[in-house]
Specification:
By secondary structure, this protein is α+β, with helices and mostly antiparallel strands. It folds into two domains: about 1-160, no CATH class; about 185-230 and about 295-378, no CATH class. The protein has helices at about 5-15, 25-30, 40-50, 50-55, 95, 120-135, 160-170, 235-245, 250-255, 295-310, 320-330, 350-365, and strands at about 1-5, 60-65, 85-90, 105-110, 140, 145-150, 155-160, 190, 195-200, 290. A hairpin with a 4-residue loop joins β5 and β6.
């Protein structure tokens, strides 16, 4: 692996006249009523209230971490999984904090194999550096204020897609218990014909108590009324208690991917490891520890919706198994399979003329800025 320390790069932000003053923006800007930066959000304010001594120095650094795997060889057919870990400072204003020069590559985990649960082993030097920046700090010169100060840093959260969420958090992100917030208090169920976990109609419990949808027996799962209250979230102490109760080990203790199956896994919990981030002294007090990358989710939804609307063979979600499950779950007689085994054409599927019009619109009228999107006409 390659490890590129972040301390000197953070110090350099205060030694440059172009960025030194901007590193205090998070504490000095005025909140307009709309969240335009993470410092406007509840999780950031909660941390500042809990660690007021840290927050008192506006030049202390707030960091975010993201990682994902990719194949550097593209579609050549060669299997390879390369994992960069990127850390970025959130002190800067929105126009700066996501620019390329402020995305600090800290770890590069080479392939060809997927790191899977052993990613924590590669994160060890970064965690040690983050603990040093929290407990000891480093003497730093601020060129904008012309003085020295002790710079400390905190890791606020991670940002990743759902599979990487499982690798970083220690909670397996698939199966019936895949939701790390609901945990075993979930309404997920197994589809009889599709043989997949399904979360349809699991969210009415979050509606206001008197909302008419809670009593609707037709538009959701048939003949089902929801009286359940919303799920209360688990705080850091609750999760640490679960680690003790289920005897969850950290990867660095048991070594690589060599975790033994934990009692109750898949039935009462989905913990497969104790994430290395819990070694950070402040991690248990965070209100928000892991974020989902919206881009991945939007793309997956877009693909599934349009493959279904366009009835793409092999990719549409509207197939015979889904129609059979639909008859068991929903009151949608107009979509049930007919006696001859054929499926009625749904109202949401585009016919041949509508598809041609849609494709022609993409070819002739859709334009994007250079580098914003691939050639959609292809």
């Amino acid at each position: 692996m390659w490890y590129l320390p972040i301390t000197d790069r953070l110090k350099r932000l205060y030694q440059s006249e172009q960025t030194a003053a901007s590193m205090r923006w998070h504490a000095e800007h005025e909140f307009t009523g709309e969240i335009s930066h993470p410092s406007d959000a509840e999780a950031w304010k909660h941390f500042r209230n809990v660690y007021s001594d840290f927050a008192a120095e506006a030049r202390n650094v707030y960091l975010g971490l993201c990682t994902d795997g990719f194949n550097p060889f593209g579609k050549s057919g060669r299997k390879y999984s390369l994992w960069p870990v990127i850390v970025t400072p959130y002190n800067l204003p929105p126009a700066l904090c996501k620019k390329q020069e402020f995305l600090f590559l800290t770890i590069l985990v080479p392939g060809p194999n997927h790191p899977r649960r052993s990613l924590d082993v590669f994160l060890q030097p970064l965690i040690e550096e983050l603990k040093m920046l929290w407990f000891e700090g480093v003497l730093t010169y601020d060129v904008s204020l012309k003085n020295n100060f002790k710079m400390q840093a905190v890791l606020m959260w991670t940002i990743n897609d759902f599979p990487a969420y499982g690798m970083l958090s220690g909670w397996t992100a698939h199966g019936r218990l895949s939701c790390p917030y609901c945990q075993d208090n979930t309404d997920a169920f197994q589809l009889k014909h599709g043989q997949k976990s399904c979360w349809f109609d699991c969210h009415r419990r979050f509606l206001p108590p008197n909302h008419p949808y809670r009593r609707n027996r037709r538009l959701f799962r048939k003949n089902r009324v929801v009286h359940d209250d919303p799920i209360s979230s688990y705080d850091g102490e609750d999760i640490l208690r679960q680690f003790r109760d289920f005897d969850v080990d950290s990867t660095t203790d048991c070594g690589g991917n060599g975790h033994e199956r934990i009692d109750g896994y898949g039935q009462y919990h989905n913990w497969h490891k104790r994430s290395i981030f819990w070694d950070l002294p402040y991690w248990k007090n965070h209100l928000l520890r892991h974020n989902l990358d919206v881009m991945h989710i939007e793309k997956n939804f877009f693909d599934n919706i349009f493959n279904t609307v366009l009835n793409v063979e092999g990719k549409t979600k509207d197939n015979q198994k889904s129609r059979l499950d639909l008859a068991d779950i929903c009151s949608r007689e107009e979509l049930h399979l007919m006696d001859n085994g054929k499926a009625p054409v749904p109202i949401f599927r585009l016919d041949a003329s509508a598809r041609n019009e849609f494709f022609q619109w993409i070819v002739d009228d859709v334009r994007f800025s250079d580098g914003y999107a691939s050639n959609l006409a292809n």
